[in-house]
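Page 42, continued from yesterday. The earlier attempt failed because a stray header line got pasted into the input along with the sequence. Redoing it now with the clean sequence only.
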Amino acid sequence: MDADHPSTGSKLHACSHIGAELIGADPKGNRHYGLFRFVCGHTDRRQYHRIEAAAAGGHQASCSECIEDRYAEEAQCHDWQLIGPAVRKGPNYRNYQHACGHCQEVAVVNMRNGDLDCAGCGETWASKPSEIYILAFTVPNLSVIKLGYSSNSTFRMRQVQCDPDLTRGFLLRKIDIKTGHRAICIEKALHSHIRRNRPDLIVPPELFRDHIRTTSEVYHRHGKPYIEALLDAVESGWDPRAQSAH
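This time it went through. Structure tokens are written below.
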């Protein structure tokens, strides 16, 4: 048996783990593909090795129709509409239309996380709504928090961890800011304020840089009440860039 062509037994075993049913050979005659019925009730072609990979990873496989439906829902969350497959880019891209009417090809993962700019109306990170967040992590023998800004704090939390099983990151708090430009200005002013008034809260980079993908702006966990008080003040209208911050 070809090592790249799994046995019938292994195919059926993989199917049982993901709630799918192998109902026949590939209608197009490709021996690496089969025809499957998924838990959604739809049937679809799938490569056998992808079914086995899903089973090994402990997650369900979806049919093409449901996958595209999910992409459409993710796009709607960011004021975009899924149009169809990408023409000029690869299979991990789709063609979307923004609320302004402009169409462009975007990576699916970027659309999922809202990490994109519209080339038609000029909406960029600077003009889009943003957040200032506090994230919590555990590095060896030390609990730390990170203060930062992002249009998607949960995605940012996942992004900065080298090994999530080790650092066990989670979102402690976030506040909404009208634009990315304002968020970065406030965030930078908050860090300056902390450096001037509570330098004892700053964690040296050598204690976390092997575990968190950032070079600074990480503080000791016991500084959470102080930093949260700063965010409370920002929500109440305080601008840390003003002279009163000095």
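Notes: Strands lie at 21-25, 33-37, 43-47, 80-85, 93-98, 103-107, 130-139, 142-150, 170-177, 218-220.
Reminder to self: strip header lines before submitting.
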